[in-house]
Amino acid sequence: MGEKVNKLNLPLDDYKGGKSTLCPGCGHDAISSVIMKAAWENAIEPAGIAKMSGIGCSSKTPAYFLSQSHGFNTAHGRMPSVTTGANMANKNLNFLAVSGDGDTASIGVGQFIHAIRRNLNMLYIIENNGVYGLTKGQYSATAEEGTQKRKGTPNLMKEIDLCAMAINLGCSFVARSFSGSRKQLTALVRAGMSHRGMAIIDVISPCVTFNNNEESLKSYGYVKSNDTELHTIDYIPHFNPIEEVEVPSGGYKDVQLHDGSYIRLETISEEHDVSDRVMALDAIHKADKDDKHVTGLLYFEEGMATLDDTENLVDTPLADLPDDMMRPSKKSLDKLLADFRS
Ligand code: SF4
Question: Which residues are CB-contacts of 39 (< 8 A; sequence separation ≥ 6)?
Fold first, then answer.
């Protein structure tokens, strides 16, 4: 039997990257593996993807997947603005960003906020472990109050919840998952890749070296036994016949994405309306109160204008436009200068 290929006739190997140099067992490696599978299953041309990242253990990971794609490892916390510029130059690329909790919630928090406000068309994955792993495990801004590392004192500061922040800012796709929940995470990443607009997935991804002891609220063991799943989510690509998809045993709800594909939500213990922002925030706060993590698609809104729309970007990448379209004529330049002087 030949090698299994996707709709583009490409094997999964074409979506792989270099060998990981992260600590063995790091949650980030599991996420890299999900990203490769999701891009392969969604049949996205590898050369049509731009991998964007900042600084940190998580931001190193784009070297370990999609080696045939474009990549840009930016300065610390500056990934959203570099992605904005790249999107201006070529809006046809699939922007896939990987960042960490330090990169996103501290040094890059201003950039994160404004990328959401602009509804930049990208998938933004946060590999969230509550510590700065690359610099030996200092608490980050997402470390829960009271959490404790293997060595050192408890964290006394209140954490930033990136999903709650994103929902409050009007993000059109907000989800939370866990690096050990491969099935749920794959479905969410596939849906995020199909979403038009900013899709944020906050993935709790334990740092096995600096934040995996029993007192930590982001350890593998803690999250595994204290994670409340909102619903089972399955992703149905529009080019697959619906008969091929496993039908969930419980009630389900389909949410249609802009490209005609669907995400399917199965309610397990409670009704969660993904279009209800208040219900989503309520679920996050309730879980927080009970020291739990709520996972699944928390909020989704289709059809929100993206930065491409508000800036009226041209379809053709700037590099392919002829010179006469790229350079203003003398007449239009004179008019512009006159406008500034008036
Ligand atoms: Fe992963 Fe922590 Fe090791 Fe960094 S230090 S590679 S986050 S386990």
Answer: 15, 46, 49, 65, 66, 96, 193
Cβ(219) – ligand 1 distance below 6 Å = no
Q: Residue 51 and residue 246: Cα distance in Å, rounded?
A: 31
Q: What is the pLDDT of residues 134-178, one digit of tens each?
A: 887 888 889 888 877 666 788 889 999 999 999 999 999 999 888
Which atom of ligand 1 sits closest to the CA of residue 27?
1
Could you give the 3-state DSSP secondary structure of residue 321? coil
Spatial distance between the Cα atoms of 224 and 215, rounded to a whole number of angstroms:
14
In angstroms, rounded to a whole number, what is the distance separating the alpha carbons of residues 178 and 165? 19
Q: Which two structure tokens, joined as six digits, stand for 9?
A: 């006739």
Provide the H-helix boundaries in 107-172. 109-118, 162-168
User: What is the C-alpha separation between 136 and 57, in angstroms, rounded?
Assistant: 11
243-275 confidence digits (pLDDT tens):
333 323 333 444 343 345 444 333 344 578 888
Phi-psi region of 56 (alpha: psi -120 to 50; beta: other; left: phi over 0): left
323 CA from centroid of ligand 1 (Å)? 47
